[in-house]
Amino acid sequence: MTKKSEIPFGAQFSPNQVNLPKLLQIIDNNQDDRATLTRVIRDQFFATHAQAQSLKLADNTVLALRAYELLEDDGATPTALAKDLLALIDTPKTLYERFAQHILINLRGIAFVETLLMMQASGEEINLHTLAKRLAQRGLHVPRGAVHLSSMRLWLATAGIFDINSSGGPKLYEVNQTRLKQILGVGLDVIDSLTQLNKAQRAFLRALSRIPESGLLVANKIADLASALYAVEYNHKELPKSVLFPLRDLGYIELIKSTTGRGAKPYELLRTDKFYQEISEPILAAAAEKAGLIPKELFERPLSQILADLKSANKHVKGQALELLAIYFTRLIDLDFKGWRTRSTDTGGAEVDVIVEGARLIFSRWQIQAKNTTTVRLDDIAKEVGLSLTFIYSNVVMIVTTGDFTKDAYSYAYHVMKTCNLNVILLNGLELERISQDPTTIITILNAKAERAMKIKERDDYFINQ
């Protein structure tokens, strides 16, 4: 089996071969029809080649557009990123900066740049062969002879990270670190300091970035959240020495030791400005943009504020809060936003549906539905289950309501889990209030539901009697 490239497929997709603003317009004008889209790309960019060859070249461009996340998997539907870039075609500088930011954050661009800087620092000769070899040593496979590395360098060069006019020599792979910092929002020194952290420390920081609520946080509870999300084990007694003190010394957290009461008390912590600038904000900016939540400050809204807004008399405020409720859990559980199935404007502010995915340990696809209703009935659950089993093929259906579920709704959810592999998670208004007071209780709540699901699904009729 051919090993997949970790650097996006880039054949017939570089600034030397296609004009990105024009290409984005073509995608927008010919969406939902891959054959037509391919022919238009051929006529626009590869018309001087023989007909059979030109169609193949254009098809490669479509494949590259998918790899660079400008087209959905069907090879015809523009992604949210493509639509965002299309809105910037009158300001090419901003367009190329935004595309470069996407490449750096989402498509291994940072690893590409880091590897080049490591090679330059050690005085190594840099060419496509040696670069691919170095990337492989870091676990990033690139097929031999592929143009993927050249295409990525050229797109980053359009934003000034490399010299756009260089065609060879030592300047070809010289990184403009000033431009890199401007586009990425952080410098390589920050990236370097993060790469020096061990797995437990990185997981702890990552768990901290999941929580929008400000104020003091209990360190042991953050460690428990990190354990549940990222399968990292922590010894609470060793937590200060192994995790907290190193992160404090790097300036990401401030520690407060409680001296009241009997017995050893766990540390409490505050996140610093440096944490928000270097860790939280770059992550959330990319996530908020992907979910269409601009400005990104919406992503920072605490659950208590979201629940208060859901009681607003203003329909716009209430509808926006419902979308934020779904996104809140996407962030808290650290799942990757894939797309809206239903937005609040489609339902008059009654419900929203979002599809999210995770790839920790195993792949999982989640349907999350948020409802601002007093009662959720069996029919509501059955509709989501039906969509999951016949269309979305999700592993988990999570339904969150500000009200409660009927007895029949709970019974139906248990029946579904007993008879098929689907997991159904129901969160009611009381549980939302608990999470709003302490976001880390999401782990306690979900663990309890997981244990119940295991008992419901428990079988012994397939074991061999001995």
Describe the SSE topology:
Layout: H1 20-29, H2 34-45, H3 51-67, H4 80-86, H5 92-106, H6 109-121, H7 128-137, H8 148-157, H9 177-184, H10 188-195, H11 199-208, E1 217-218, H12 219-230, H13 239-249, E2 253-257, E3 267-271, H14 273-290, H15 303-309, H16 315-332, E4 336-342, E5 351-358, E6 364-371, E7 375-376, H17 378-392, E8 396-401, E9 404-405, H18 407-419, E10 423-427, H19 429-437, H20 441-457
Helix pairs in contact: 1-4, 2-3, 5-6, 11-12, 11-13, 15-16, 17-18
Features:
466 residues, alpha/beta, Arc Repressor Mutant, subunit A, Trna Endonuclease, Chain: A, domain 1, five-stranded mixed β-sheet, three-stranded antiparallel β-sheet, 20 helices, globular
Structural summary, described in words:
The chain has 466 residues and is an alpha/beta fold. The protein is built from 20 helices and 10 strands. The strands form 3 sheets. It has a 5-stranded mixed β-sheet with strand order 4-5-6-8-10, with helices on both faces. Helix 15 runs antiparallel to helix 16. 34% of the residues are buried.
